[in-house]
Design a protein that fits this description.
six-stranded parallel β-sheet; 400 residues; 6 strands; alpha/beta; 7% strand
């Protein structure tokens, strides 16, 4: 069997979280069909990406040291098809790309890039910023993205992971055109299973008995929900540490609560921004059509939806914010009650442990041991004897 590597390098907000969740949960079935998804934890490929690109990421970069080399070694040792997937690989420099491809050995490498139209990607990227503690306004974000110089942190990151022709130039320059695959995200309102069918065809997963149940997704928010989250960030990011922010704000509030506002207005682009984004997308479609890459879907999907009503999240009224705010308060109260119950249970377990200890201290054998220990602690020789005993027993200080 020929060795192949399917290297999926992005883009963010193209269904990547769902794809990686399915691959992670179905590793055993994939192996039975000679397909390797090497991951001992769900974020293993994320850590490998951080390591490859030496990216700082809230302290995780120290945990990521060596992750790419370990991943590449597993891929080199595999006899069949191996899949690597994470969206932030998209921003790798040419030097980092060269290192990555060289470390995969003699396997036939296929590049996979999942892509979505700019009309939806630009709002989605701002929302991701907000879900990662940012409180930048939508207007300032759009200004940074549209700045031709791309010198801001926001602008440089956005285009590094979203400029489709540039990503293909960096990752696919040394690969034949037929080994570069594009998966386009279907238009809004399409059959929910269509994106998976496109992924499945590209990765060779058709007809495999995979569990496609969604356990890890990255849902979107409506306009008032995102506006509320940005307002919360303004209040709490200076007092709430990142390890607490992620479970309480990003997961509990954003993903589990505010994402359920299905009746809310969806975030979009104002007329001028919409026209600019579609114009740029048309130039990309013309360029990509000339390259002859394999496309799952249609390049026309990259043109995005027609202009619709625009709701500005920067000017959301208190009346619009009230319903999601009440949902957020309710969710936090339920979580507080759950944590209070956990705290009470732990207090009860601690109380019972203390009672058990006190009962043990009433036994004759305990009193004898305690008397011996006390007498030994009164002399240097006795203390030395106790230390030796405790080392042998593997215990610290305390009653023998």
């Amino acid at each position: 069997m020929s060795k192949r590597v399917l290297l999926h390098v992005g883009c963010p907000k193209t269904g990547t979280s769902y794809l990686q969740d399915v691959l992670f949960r179905n590793q055993e079935i994939l192996r039975e069909h000679d397909i390797l998804y090497p991951a001992d934890r769900f974020d293993a490929h994320f850590l490998a990406a951080l390591d490859l690109m030496t990216l700082p990421w809230g302290g995780l970069e120290t945990e990521a040291v060596g992750a790419w080399d370990r991943l590449a070694e597993q891929v080199r040792e595999w006899h069949g098809t191996a899949i690597i997937s994470h969206e932030i690989f998209a921003r790798a420099t040419p030097t980092q790309v060269e290192r990555a491809l060289a470390s995969l050995g003699d396997a036939e490498v296929h590049l996979v890039l999942s892509v979505r139209d700019l009309v939806r990607q630009i709002p989605a990227e701002w929302q991701e910023n907000v879900k990662h503690r940012s409180h930048i306004t939508y207007a300032r974000f759009l200004q940074a993205v549209r700045d031709p110089a791309r010198e801001s942190k926001i602008g440089s990151w956005f285009w590094a992971v979203q400029e489709i022709p540039d990503i293909l130039d960096r990752w696919g320059a040394s690969l034949p055109a037929d080994r570069v695959h594009l998966v386009t995200v279907p238009p809004s309102g399409s059959d929910r299973g269509e994106l998976w069918r496109r992924f499945s065809r590209t990765f060779g997963l058709d007809d495999l008995p995979l569990d496609l149940t969604a356990e890890r997704e990255n849902p979107s928010l409506g306009v008032p929900e995102t506006s509320l989250l940005r307002t919360i960030n303004q209040r709490v990011t200076s007092i709430l540490a990142p390890p607490d922010y992620r479970p309480l704000v990003r997961e509990l509030l954003a993903h589990q609560t505010l994402s359920r506002g299905v009746a809310s207005a969806r975030l979009g682009l104002a007329p001028d921004d919409h026209a600019w984004a579609q114009g740029l997308s048309r130039s990309w479609v013309r360029l990509l059509a000339e390259r002859g890459h394999d496309v799952a879907g249609s390049l026309d999907d990259l043109l995005g939806p027609d202009l619709g009503p625009f709701a500005d999240p920067d000017t959301a009224s208190a009346e619009e914010l009230l319903p999601p705010a009440l949902d957020a308060i309710s969710a936090l109260l339920v979580e507080a009650a759950r944590l209070r119950a956990v705290e009470e249970r732990l207090h009860e377990e601690l109380r019972e442990a203390h009672q058990e200890r006190d009962r043990a201290r009433l036994t004759p054998s305990y009193r004898i041991r305690r008397k011996v220990v006390t007498s030994l602690e009164d002399s240097a020789v006795g203390r030395g004897t106790l230390d030796t005993y405790r080392r042998l027993k593997g215990r610290g200080k305390g009653p023998a």
